[in-house]
Amino acid sequence: MSVLFETSLGDIVIDLETELCPKTCLNFLKLCKVYYYNLNAFFNVSKDFLAQVGDPTATGTGGECIWSLIASQKGETAQRYFTPEFNPRLKHKERGTVSMAVAPAIGEEHKGGCGSQFFITLGENIEYLDGKHAVFGHVVEGFDTLDKLNEVFVDQDGRPLKDVRIRHVEILEDPFEDPPGLVVPESPPTRPPDNSTRIAEDEDPLETLPEEEAEEIRRKKAAQASALTLEMVGDLPFANVRPPENVLFVCKLNPVTRDEDLELIFSRFGTIISCQVIRDKKTGDSLQYAFIEFDKREDAEQAYFKMQNVLVDDRRIWVDFSQSVARLNTHWSNDVKMGPRRGGRGKGGFGGRDDLEATRRYRGQSEERRNDYEMVFDVPGGGKKRHRNCPHDEKLMCSPQSVDFRVHRCVLSTASPVFEGMLSLPQPSSDRDTIIPIIPLPEPHTVLEMVLRFVYPLEDPVITSLDQLVPVLEAARKYDFTAAVERLRRRLVSADFLRASPLRVYGIAAHYELSEEAAIASRAMLSVPVSEQVPSEELKHISAYDYHRLIVLREQRARAATSLLKPPRELKCMQCNGRWEKSQEPPRWWTDYRERAREELRIRPTSEIIFTLPFLQRSAHAGCTGCATSIINSSWFFEQLRQKIDDLPATIPFEW
Questions:
Q1: Which of 142, 217, 204, 166 minimizes the C-alpha distance to 39?
Q2: Phi, psi at residue 43, to the nearest 5°?
Q3: CATH topology of domain 394-545
Q4: CB–CB of 139/146 below 8 Å?
Q5: Which residues form the PPIase cyclophilin-type domain (predicted)?
Q6: What is the pLDDT of residue 98?
Q7: What per-residue confidence (pLDDT) applies to 252?
Q8: Which residue of 198, 353, 432, 646 sits 20 to 30 Å from the alpha carbon of 169, by its own alpha carbon?
Q9: What pLDDT, on the 0 to 100 scale, is given for residue 345?
Q10: pLDDT value at position 427?
Q11: 248 contacts 319 by C-beta, under 8 angstroms
Q12: Angle, nearest 10°, between helix axes 445-455 and 482-492?
């Protein structure tokens, strides 16, 4: 029996011990069913200990069991708490143990027990909670969410400074019958039950953009999401489709205006491809608007400026650029009537239209690739059949593994000056039984395929490792495929490669004299210890001077960053500096923080580690009881210090 919690930090799936704790699980499941936990905030988070939730007031004093909730809805009274099951086999040993918080008894009138509050353990072997709180479940999925929850900033009461809430609860399986009188609301709540003044879960406290720019970014994201939704349901051929710039929308027409009349009037501005007055399907009556497609965009612009508010058949027409993409064909088709049918009639169509075809990601994956890895894409041209085996138009690339690639000569000549000169020379004869000229190449077929996919107007191949990228980059540079080299250079300094092996990226960039990429890799090397980097073959091709410059950059930046570790006079702790004789001394936590920050900067001369919550918490534990508050109040100082460290020189200038 499981429950899915959708929180602002991620999802958590909890398995319940319904056989060992039936009453406790019944109470929990029915509270979930009536949306009692929706939008509840985690009000007590202790690092490596527990995270408590389930109180609508977020104070730790609220909440009630399901039977009390049902009685209060009827205007009756019932016990606020119930007595849970304590099973000796269920203990707080593992991280992710879920327990009901047991309230103590207050006198004879207020009996102790469990209401709605529960907690999830964030550490292991918390055995002193056994027998005090009732275990009834365990987290089985979402431990990454628990890690995020364990690292949140909290105030002196343990509540996160930025709200962490349960957005929604899904009951995956419920074996219990509903208690008598249980009424499930029609919809979940839309507002939090507590009056929180914390940082909202969707609010960025460090956001520096003006409100207008932030609103513009939100609108763009919403528009992208809407376009993707329309693509998924088939209303758009692809999400980033744009309306054509050579089509005009004309409205407020007279019902008697015909296609021929409108085309004659607008033809003085240029060649018109199509002019259509939209009519009712059943009656054939004009809907008083039309679309006019010009051959050139400039002609459409001229007509837009000259024909606005012109009198046509006793009506003042309105002209604008069309925003419709319903008539838009994909880039495979030149024929408006035929549409993008690449294999004859009947093969086109997308979203219920014959003149549209889906982009490649919607294409069936069952198409078998031919043995020759053909990469020829013909566009229908006026119904004329093209000869696919014309020696003047096509060439055959042959790899050492006898895998052939049929390519267009014009594509290779345009993409590579090397092939432009090679193909202009007479080709040697071949023993192969084919009329297509053969170009033997020494590269493996896997490398040639990736290079050609960068050259042709296809989706870039997926490169998951540097072992794949290096031979492809070598071949692209060898044959001078400039566009492919540029995209491979961007892939070389992608985040995943820089995170996994920045030293190897630096070696590859230095070997091929890629100055921009080498500078980016030198910056990424600051975030990892040099001793942890595995030597690679590419390092054999760089000079000792370049490697020495990398080491010197780390040492100089470490010394410069260490020299910035000076506390300002405003850095105080109310307890450490409470006495007059200690008022001029820095807080106790600063001494520990400075020593550990110096050691960390010698290893990684960046600001990535020394400002993290675990790093600051260790300094807080090394100080007095008031040092934690002092660290929180010193956030302005840490921001200034971070900015100064980030402004230090972080790259090596190269001049190859």
A1: 166
A2: -100, -5
A3: Potassium Channel Kv1.1; Chain A (3.30.710)
A4: yes
A5: 6-171
A6: 96
A7: 93
A8: 198
A9: 40
A10: 53
A11: yes
A12: 100
